[in-house]
Design goal:
heterodimer; A: mainly alpha; 74% helix; 0% strand; elongated; B: alpha+beta; Immunoglobulin-like; 3 helices
């Protein structure tokens, strides 16, 4: 028996727009964890990331008819989540630093040694000292593992400008982490 | 370039364009320190399973709020008509009735109850699974009168009560009706 082909994002978006609302859960299921990691590193807190991903999916549902190419739903969704993360960071910059330290430390108590935990925690706090643009390029390259070319395509920008942003981020991180490196 | 800046070649190392062996000996220590920084990057997965049902419940709640708005003018006219026809009477306190809701759903991970009595909030009234048979129950005390409701299975599937009469909700779905 041949397995049933997996529905593409485009198939699901078109079905939802045609009235099959519950199919939207498939898109949420498909992408929620992948983008929760991006949001967690951008916001410095897993709880804030969960709220951001939820809001972004609800917002994307509201604007689904504006998704020009349903086959590229995920790239379009990413930009909605990105805007949400940037807005959230502007709103609660000071609170997030404290939460970041707490959330990373709590996770590390059950996963990894004390030294690893300390380094991760220090880096997470240092990441929050970057500008959102710098942090984003660092997260996409070094957490999500995307190439400069892929990031440039996703953010509609050029590789040289991304590299400039990233190289400033490296210097800032080094300064923030002087006692750890 | 300040004293804290990485050497441009070390930045290329961090970008993955060159390896540690490509660096001149005087930059090796700086390169190793830079790689230690990258080794501390937290790449662990973040799992948010509750997001699926939270999103779907948020969409469902909003959809159900639309109905009263659509019906509001008609209901206002009906209420005005009733007040005009009926003589005024002092309002009696509403009696309370205890009701047990039961759903058999052996494969469900969670079941809750959403209805007119909790503003269709899919989080407000979770059912408790009793034993391994998949029987889910909740006991509520509700005011006498008519209530509409549905079970919410795993946060996404809205299921009418198989043991109660149902009415169309105006959006192509069925709500169960309970008259106390």
């Amino acid at each position: 028996m041949r397995p049933e082909p997996k529905a593409t994002d485009g198939d699901i978006v078109r079905a939802v727009l045609a009235g099959d609302r519950e199919r939207y859960a498939q898109l949420v299921e498909r992408y929620r964890d992948r983008y929760a990691r991006y949001a967690a590193r951008m916001l410095g807190s897993a709880d804030a990331a969960e709220d951001a991903v939820q809001d972004a999916f609800v917002r994307a549902y509201d604007q689904l008819a504006q998704c020009k190419d349903p086959n590229k739903f995920v790239g379009w969704f990413f930009l909605i989540l990105r805007n949400r993360c940037f807005a959230e960071r502007r709103r609660s910059r000071s609170e997030a630093s404290l939460e970041a330290a707490d959330s990373v430390a709590a996770a590390d108590r059950t996963d990894g040694g004390a030294e690893t935990a300390e380094r991760r925690q220090a880096l997470q706090l240092a990441l929050l000292a970057l500008t959102p643009d710098q942090r984003e390029v660092f997260v996409l390259k070094h957490v999500e593992g995307l190439s400069y070319g892929e990031i440039a395509e996703r953010l509609s920008t050029s590789v040289p400008s991304l590299k400039m942003r990233m190289h400033r981020a490296y210097d800032k991180l080094r300064e923030e982490l002087r006692e750890h490196t | 370039m300040s004293e804290h800046d990485f050497h441009p070649l070390v930045k290329q190392l961090l970008d993955g364009d060159v390896t540690l062996a490509d660096l001149p000996p005087e930059l090796r220590a700086e390169g190793e320190a830079a790689l230690r920084l990258l080794a501390a990057v937290d790449r662990r997965a973040v799992s948010v399973p509750a997001v699926t049902w939270r999103v779907m419940a948020a969409l469902e709640r909003r959809r159900r709020r639309v109905l009263p708005w659509l019906l509001a003018p008609a209901l206002a006219m009906a209420a005005a008509l009733i007040l005009w026809i009926l003589p005024a009477k002092p309002a009696a306190p509403a009696a309370l009735v205890t009701v047990r809701f039961v759903l058999v759903a052996p494969d469900a991970r969670e079941v809750s109850l959403a209805g007119t009595f909790n503003q269709w909030d899919a989080h407000a009234t979770p059912l408790i699974r009793s034993g391994p048979t998949g029987v889910w129950t909740a006991t509520l005390t509700l005011p006498a009168g008519q209530h509409q409701y549905a079970f919410v299975v795993d946060g996404v599937r809205w299921v009418p009560d198989p043991g109660a009469p149902a009415v169309d909700d105006g959006f192509g779905r069925r709500n169960s009706v309970l008259t106390l």
